[in-house]
Amino acid sequence: MEYGGDTLEKISLNGEWKLYYFPQQSAEVRHPGELEGASLQAIPARVPGNVELDLQEAGEITDPYTGSGVRQLQDYELHEWWYVKEFEAPLQKGRTELVFHGVDCMATYWLNGQELGSTANMLIAHTFDVTEMLKEEGMNTLHVRLQSPILEALKYEYDPSMSAMSYNWSQLWVRKAGHGYGWDIMPRAVSAGLWREVEIVVHDEVRIKDLYFYTKDADRRGAEVGIFYQLAADPAHFREMTLRFTGTCGTAVFVQETRVNFAAGAHDFRVEEPCLWWPRGYGAANLYEVRTELLLHGKVLAERTDSFGIRKLELIRTEITSDEEPGEFKFVINGTPIFCKGSNWVPADMFHSKDAARIPAMLDLFVDMNCNMVRVWGGSVYEDHAFFERCDREGLMVWQDFSMACALYPQTEQFYEMIREEARFIVRKLRNHPSLVLWCGDNEIDQFSLNRHIDPNGNKISREVLPAVLYQCDPYRPYLPSSPYYSPEFWKTKNPALLPEEHLWGPRDYYKSRFYTGSKMHFVSEIGYHGCPNLESIEKFIEPEHLWPMENNEQWALHSSDPIGLGGVWSYRIGLMANQVKELFGEVPEQLGDFVLASQFSQAEAKKFFVEMIRLRKWRRTGILWWNMIDGWPQFSDAVVDYYGGKKLAYHYLKRVHQDHCIMIDEPDNWQVRVVLGNDSLTSKQGTYRIWDADTDETLLEGSFQSAVNDNINLGHIRISHSQQRMFFIQWTIDGQVFHNHYLLGFPGFSLAGYKKWMGKMAGISAEFARYSGLDYHGKAESSGSTDAT
């Protein structure tokens, strides 16, 4: 539930609580009264918080982010946790609710010794009416009991149609962020805690309970929009009441009134020459501020203020694609096709109480990178309003997975109801954000089904339950059953080459191999390549005696990330990173500093190539969301920014090729390479450019240009020889601003020493590469003593 302007009072229950804990099977404590007689010692706890952070603060465990410290957490998976808080009653009188915005996970609640109820979902808020239960005098006492999700999972039946990764089957029945049980990007941390705010909310009896803004059609001339409403008011006055909506966007204003005939209704109207909401690069992300007033005979009984964006949203897609019958997977906003560039959003932290503090800086990276889309991956939590509000303002489109990933979940009425309740809450919570452009049923569950030879179209969760909730609660936004989606038409052949939207992982071999370049997809929603964090960051999370070598190194494996460690299913990633380095440079450096540097070069070239591979084929290809922007814990990964904020070289390479106007060089064909100017905007620009050889400074191509609108143009060709290994530097100027790119010509292996030399020259023309030039043997920058790009 969301609260509008009819809240009389809010009391935060955040801050310090008491926390009791013990193995769940070792003590019979079922009620607060039994807790007080159990002779247990409490430790201080912070809310929002996670119990592991409280244990660390109390000195009970060491830092779980460094070394092998995360392994300690497995000792607490079978514990239960009791939070206790005393507070005074609110001063205002009215309907009073106790709201828990995030509880992880199997919880029972008591107020003043009286049980309020139980909940079993980490991913949604939980609300209790406590109007008649609060003490008006003296202190009120709140108890929250959190029980082990592992023991909870033992209560359920499991069927052959169900599946998960070998180490995290216990997540299947429990509505908790899947990554906490271990993933290839996060450690095993089966946490517990009150991870979002807790508050007392007092409501007025008359209020505007809910508003839903929708756009049916829109262009620059006019828009057909509507507002759905729900009220709490005296029905005896319904026909005497009116709702007045006043929307402002800069100097543009609309005013609409409608008579109230019932507690719920909708009002459709036209806005002339609207301020349209556009994705980043295509125009302003305009937002209307709407003041809604409930009036009786001209007197305002209730009011609230919301924001919404007017934009027509379409996802044009086919179920398959082929050379004979090309399909589509294309986002269209306000009638304009949008070329999507962005990244996948993974958990902000392994302990989600830290998310709110980390997310602003994380979104700064997306804005600085000039991303226009972020995909919120289905193995994590649903982000809160602050995340979406920032995306609204920045024109950052959000692809939102429902929180299911890489597993075959229960196909029972009991589980359907769990998902139905969760989806209904999340959809109603987030549906007014114009940045939200797609609901997706899950991450890779169709693919998981294919691996098990089970037809994913029998999955009622993604094919029936979720579509029904969306049809009911948010009918004006596209839905994709899974990513990637294996339609009935695809299932006839089971040929991945027919998928319009795909996750390109495969062998993860040479980044220019046929696996990547030969794919026929239109939209890449996952693709990645490994790269070491900066050396200073590695030294923060790997203990000195384990820094090097990397082979048979338990801490490197654990931070690769493998929840098991050496011998686990993901521990091969360290060897994979070494093989990718060897592929590009013909050798694996023997010293840590050189290995860090070589792996960053390898990752940067690969990820730059992936984006250019898609941009160069616009509109046959329509978007790329690479994996991923920033780590949620310290590790060796595909991320281009490490957990501590250190930017890898790939960040800078990607920032270059994410510019609205970008000059790129295609792969050799017929003894030449094609030079292309891409424009992912609705503005044509004039400029000049030059391309020259990094070793000889010979000018290879230069001239002036006039860019096409939202399209590519060819600038010319450069004669090459396939036997050469060269680097071309590219520079262009628009409106007095200078931009850069480069192109690496030839087949590997390249000389690592030669690549360092090119980096030194690149630093001479582009300041952001100075930190990666002039590096000594240990990877330290001679001038500053740091390779951290932040």
Automatic annotation (TrEMBL):
Q: Which GO molecular function annotations are given, in alphabetical order?
A: beta-mannosidase activity
Q: Where is the Glycoside hydrolase family 2 immunoglobulin-like beta-sandwich domain?
A: 206-311
Per the record, the domain of life is Bacteria
EC id: 3.2.1.25
Matching InterPro entries: Beta-gal/glucu_dom_sf (IPR036156), Beta-mannosidase-like_N2 (IPR054593), Beta-mannosidase_GH2 (IPR050887), Galactose-bd-like_sf (IPR008979), GH (IPR017853), Ig-like_fold (IPR013783), Ig-like_GH2 (IPR006102)
GO biological process terms on file: carbohydrate metabolic process; glycoprotein catabolic process
Q: Where is the secretion signal located?
A: none
Q: Which reaction does it catalyse?
A: Hydrolysis of terminal, non-reducing beta-D-mannose residues in beta-D-mannosides
- A Pfam cross-reference name: Glyco_hydro_2_N2
Swiss-Prot/TrEMBL keywords: Glycosidase, Hydrolase
Annotated Beta-mannosidase-like galactose-binding domain ranges read 41-196
Q: Which family does it belong to?
A: Belongs to the glycosyl hydrolase 2 family.
| Listed name of the protein | beta-mannosidase
Q: Could you tell me which species this protein originates from?
A: Paenibacillus nasutitermitis
